[in-house]
């Protein structure tokens, strides 16, 4: 326990450092201690979310994006999850060291989260209206009626049709996309300072998705909200993100501004990812994918964890030496020993594609 | 749902027939001479034997006896007790007593069982959890007669000045007269209920929606009482319903110790005397009560968990 | 090219969910018309993409096609027989031949079964498919096929990430090598790379086994990539159906056009340069859909006739594929792409 | 944001990999493609029950409870191993002396004497057979019967549920004493067998209701729908999907209920229809002692304590099994 | 008749009437509460158990009562009861007596009441008393239906004749010197006209009697019967207390707790489990009164294993009754040493002789001498009567003394016990000994010997049959002099001691508890009735 935080924890406002970044992760580790072994889901993640900005977290499925988010929220079940190391600082205060009672006041109100799996994340036995309204009741002490009225507004905001009639309905009565929107409505209900959105729009059609992203963008501008957007939809990322962090095997393998990532990825995994997007001109061809299986988190490969799948791999450096996050530019980094080669190559390809290629829809 | 309820209510008719027939057959099957049973240890004299055989149609085969009984029942006549009192009077006097006892017992059981179970569930395998387990088990292992009696002795006699609780009879009225006996009967079901609460709570505490509630910043107490409890309520209310049945079944001890004129002790006496009209009357009403109770509980399932549909 | 021999014939399928009020004795106060008169054929070897607004009834349609929900009316014919009337052996045969990948990955996995058991369940159910000793190997193959680590065969669903769970569902759907797979958003939680693997897999299987797909997704490029035909739904009914080319290049229904215009492009430089058709007005409630054309409340072309006559789903002059709009016309490419 | 990844290789001490653990190329897209060469394939066939067993083997609670149960079982079969006195021996050897009535513990009689002047410890040893076998068998039988009927009623609903549930309603109202009297006189088999039969016939209902309730709350779960979609037939759905997910309340109710079963056995004995001398049981001992508990506390306490320990061991066993069956708790 | 089982009832243990402690000065008025269990009935024709008798004793005054020596004496109501031949009795009553509803008590009140009770279709429990097995009034048989459901020939017994408002005659079928004694029984109370107009059922809820107390309100079932002093009571002695509340209890233990808690004034029988602490709890409020109860073991004659008298004697002599009485019964039972209870005129201490003496050595000899004997002794009892402990204790003595196995075998209730006995008889199976109990209805040896041991005795379940014994009992009943009768009966008793068809076990004794701060002069008779005339409030 860091004494300085402890000493200042009596006075909440004093402890928060207005100069510090809104949310800062430093060397966060999360492991699941199971009978079969220790699964190291997050292995030293560090990133920063600035007020009013969006950090998109991309990455392989199973690379630890959701676990990181849950660690920030402090909702991992212990056991099996343990955080052996790392800090999560909100305006300079380490959330991980905060007494549970105090930390609760941050959840929902200052940091909110949209869960990936909307159906199981909603309580099956309460009307959705009550679940949204609970935010107002718990944090703002509103009456049941007033909370419900606000819940209807929130549902309207996320464009759920006939919200007034359907506030009393239960989660299972809604479609997948509607549930997801209810989660979103709940998360933004209290205008949090940080919003962690874990794949918030996967179940939404593009028109609604656009509207929801607009809504979030608006909120962000109005309230200066910082957002962590976990998504697989590169289109959405391209539209809204300011910065991007790419995760692989529990680590950040590349971090850059949105423009850099798309035009000249410096990590082979990122590059592979971008190449996997389906394109209309290749309709009858196989999609390109990063070959190979994701690593077993109980036995993460030595050296660069990506090396078994990496086309740029060179023995022995890649198999023995873990690449640090090489700093490429200000706030830009890539964890590849040969990032320069990769970057150069992708830049060249990008230019070519600009000339002749076309996207799926354009 | 309306149709379901209607269907359930209709099903009560065959249930009543089944119950009365079953009880009738069971009383019929009781060993020993019926007349002798009604007379206790005294040898009935021949004139009385004739009288009783005639009165209870004892010479008829079971079906005929039953038919005659049901015929009377159809006109609302529950028959007479062996002491020649109308069974309806008996039911009117004794049912309210037992129902009040059951109600108070269930309230105690629910309050204590849920409370204790929740705390034990939150601190799984902790000291409290273990203590509760052992305590409730000791309560299960010691006959309720002893427990009730000790309670009566301590609270009613030794600490009378402190508690001011009546310890016998119902003349002090509801709820005073029922507090101690109610508490006593509640002890029986406490072990199961607290354990059940604890277990279902543990199962649910790890679900995703609890995690969501935590992420929403909902206070712990509210998470338990509002979010988790409702999801765990179905087996719990089922158990509480079943406990009402066992309370009524074992009320004989409590009713005897606390001198409550309820159906429990009546049933014990009547079974011994093979007093069919009384037993059938009591059981029929009891089954009716359970049929309604279980219907309400089943409907509660759908209220507690909207995913449950009846149609 | 897929044949024209239909494996599924869907006719006038309707599913209404009752809307109730009250706590103990629930009164019905209306119905959500989740699926409201849907007809189409699914041909052998064909992939039919289904897109549409969230909540327009796609998942419900999928469940109906599996006979997991009872329809309010209408029929689904499989091998010439109505699947809702099948019993016994035939029913089981149908269950073997039509498989589904459910939209909600986690809740559709038994929390007390290992992944191996979940994916292997179809083998246990249809014992004739794989000999007992072989099943485990097959399960591991399946896991690997969908990009899951076969070493994780003994894990339980809660130990996986969202995308991994989704892949477990896919593996289960593929296990039987069915004739028809109904995929309800099978790749929504996958990163593009894994998504690409899965899509490739689906395509390979299709080629190899002459599989048919009903492919529900929101990612229009994914849909386009895999589909031979695309069906666009709005508020419980089909508004436009046609080959991928017809729908993507020559959409004639305003909703389809709006949909296509909203597709985000994975290119940050085009961020604010696209022109999106912004749909105005509130989304109508499926419990109380607008009269006539259901889209009219948000349609920029709506006229009086739209409120009165529901437009039939027929081939339109603008482009020869069925579209349910009185004023079907193509938008120029520039308008769409901006 | 420089040097984000500040730790060096292996700083978390785990970045060691089995060579070839993850091979680069897999044949994605080829159905039936080989499992990657040299890949360590999990040989163990994990299944809920197998995993539960593995879990149990590591559980201290499990072994403790199992040991206690084993001791009780041995006591039930060979009470003579635990004591040299048999107060109910029929060979005329005499053990109880009224002059020892309610006397406290003394050498060789660690639990003292009961009201009749019999050694409490030997009675307890000899009472194990009836109590343990009645408690054990009745609990198992009524859990099986009640569980099965409850699950079937809950799953099928409709008229099946109607019939089973109405029978349950009737049994709820049925007085234990009457039922016991009739059953035990009809079967003409007093003693352990008869008591087991009567208690099972009367005891399955509570368990059936609990089973039914937990089935009702999961029968429409998505994973059950998914199993149906795969073509699983009802027995499989019941056994593989519904049962494991609705077992917890069943285990709780039946293991705690074991105590109630033993007590009911005593009631029957007390009424003259249960086990009878020369057989004895804990319940009988307890109910005998309860009329003299003032002044004879030890005669009540010891058998009660023994019963408590026996029930406790079953509860702990049940708890260990239940926890082992919950993958989320591992 | 007479009923057995010792749940509610008890009576016996003569003499030594300790009575209440120091006779407190009589104070008039006040309320006393007495414990009771729910009576079965409250109409004289039906009451045959202690609880109903206790209430009716307050509400009614009959023709005969029993004095301290259990001799029948006339009540204030009876003028004379006379007979020359023990067959025709002339009964005169005093005028001026009224029922609680104001109507006069006349000879007809008696005759009607008795006829009603004897009339078969009324199904009265006490009909038996008018029949040949008890007092035997002429014409009784005509009141009984010939077969089930039939209407009897007559509605009135020919042996009852109203002579005037204050006189009636009774003719018996055969001479009986027990008649006068029997008149003290509840069955012989008079009934007002209201009983016949309103019907028995309604009457019972608030009986209208002619006794010192009248009902206040009606019978609150299972809870309370409240009676208040009847101001027009015509008897010479009048009660002191103004009101008696009969509080009903299901368990004597609860009543005891209430007594110590101050919510109850008199407990007529302290339960054995509380006896150890009763003396210290109650102080002067603990009192021992004579009681009448007789418990014994019957040996079925059909059982080949028990036909050898040596077996029966061995078993009887192997049991230490005194120790069991002290330990198991806490002194509420004393060893039986005759075949009639000590409260009966004609009881002889030690009349049972060797048979009732605890002598393990001798017992063992008898056992050894027996040829045909059971390998293990069984003592059957009904489990609902609280007999388990003394049976088990007895068994332990049998084991200890004879070195043979012994088990106490419960039957759920008496009816089942009889049923099993019957079955054993039919199948010729061994049944072993079984317990029986007896409470007298009126203080006469005939009330024991007739029903229990005579070959046609109503409660002779074990089938004892000795013509010589039967003849003696009969002879006694017909003797005109009391002393001669007693002599005959004692001779009959000697035959029993020789034959040993049963093993006498215990006589009862009753322990009364009361609240000394509230009541005084508490006296309980062998029928467990509280003496309402003596009772006073402090
Ligand atoms: N069990 C139910 N009870 C009541 N309404 C339901 C139920 N299931 C679905 N609905 C309603 O039916 C409509 C269609 O739902 P469905 O799940 O089919 O939509 P969808 O097209 O799959 O949407 P999404 O893309 O968001 O998953 C929605 O309005 C939904 O609320
Ligand atoms: N309880 C657990 N026990 C063991 N491993 C776990 C557990 N929970 C999660 N994991 C593992 O942790 C890793 C990270 O999971 P996480 O949910 O963060 O992935 P993700 O990046 O969000 O992926 P997706 O995009 O598929 O949702 C996964 O490989 C998963 O298998
Ligand atoms: Mg995730
Ligand atoms: Mg859907
Ligand atoms: Ni392009």
From TrEMBL, chain A:
GO terms for biological process: peptide transport. One of its GO terms (cellular component) is plasma membrane. SUPFAM superfamilies: P-loop containing nucleoside triphosphate hydrolases. It comes from the Bacteria. The keyword ATP-binding applies. Keywords: ATP-binding, Cell membrane, Membrane, Nucleotide-binding, Transport. It is found in: Cell membrane. One of its GO terms (molecular function) is ATP binding. Pfam families: ABC_tran, oligo_HPY. CDD domains: ABC_NikE_OppD_transporters. InterPro entries: AAA+_ATPase, ABC_Ni/Peptide_Import, ABC_transporter-like_ATP-bd, ABC_transporter-like_CS, Oligopep_ABC_C, P-loop_NTPase. It is a peripheral membrane protein. Its main location: membrane. The keyword Nucleotide-binding applies. Residues 23-274 form the ABC transporter domain. Residues 1-20 are annotated as: Disordered. NCBIfam families: oligo_HPY. Belongs to the ABC transporter superfamily. This is Oligopeptide transport system ATP-binding protein.
Automatic annotation (TrEMBL), chain B:
It is found in: Cell membrane. PROSITE patterns: ABC_TM1. The chain crosses the membrane at residues 12-30, 101-120, 132-157, 177-196, 276-297. InterPro entries: BPD_transp_1_N, MetI-like, MetI-like_sf. The keyword Cell wall biogenesis/degradation does not apply. One of its GO terms (cellular component) is plasma membrane. Belongs to the binding-protein-dependent transport system permease family. PANTHER family: DIPEPTIDE TRANSPORT SYSTEM PERMEASE PROTEIN DPPB-RELATED, DIPEPTIDE-TRANSPORT INTEGRAL MEMBRANE PROTEIN ABC TRANSPORTER DPPB-RELATED. This is Peptide/nickel transport system permease protein/oligopeptide transport system permease protein. It comes from Motilibacter peucedani.
TrEMBL record, chain C:
Pfam families: ABC_tran, oligo_HPY. SUPFAM superfamilies: P-loop containing nucleoside triphosphate hydrolases (SSF52540). Keywords: ATP-binding, Nucleotide-binding, Transport. Residues 8-260 form the ABC transporter domain. GO terms for biological process: peptide transport; transmembrane transport. InterPro entries: AAA+_ATPase, ABC_transp_ATP-bind, ABC_transporter-like_ATP-bd, ABC_transporter-like_CS, Oligopep_ABC_C, P-loop_NTPase. GO terms for molecular function: ATP binding; ATP hydrolysis activity. PROSITE patterns: ABC_TRANSPORTER_1, ABC_TRANSPORTER_2. Belongs to the ABC transporter superfamily. This is Peptide/nickel transport system ATP-binding protein/oligopeptide transport system ATP-binding protein. It comes from Motilibacter peucedani. The lineage of its organism: Bacteria, Bacillati, Actinomycetota, Actinomycetes, Motilibacterales.
UniProtKB/TrEMBL annotation, chain D:
Its main location: membrane. The keyword Cell cycle does not apply. It is a multi-pass membrane protein. SUPFAM superfamilies: MetI-like. Residues 128-318 form the ABC transmembrane type-1 domain. Coiled coil: none annotated. PROSITE patterns: ABC_TM1. It comes from the Bacteria. GO terms for biological process: transmembrane transport. It is found in: Cell membrane. GO terms for cellular component: plasma membrane. Keywords: Cell membrane, Membrane, Transmembrane, Transmembrane helix, Transport. The keyword Secreted does not apply. The chain crosses the membrane at residues 60-82, 130-155, 167-186, 192-211, 242-263, 300-321. Belongs to the binding-protein-dependent transport system permease family. This is Oligopeptide transport system permease protein. It comes from Motilibacter peucedani. The lineage of its organism: Bacteria, Bacillati, Actinomycetota, Actinomycetes, Motilibacterales.
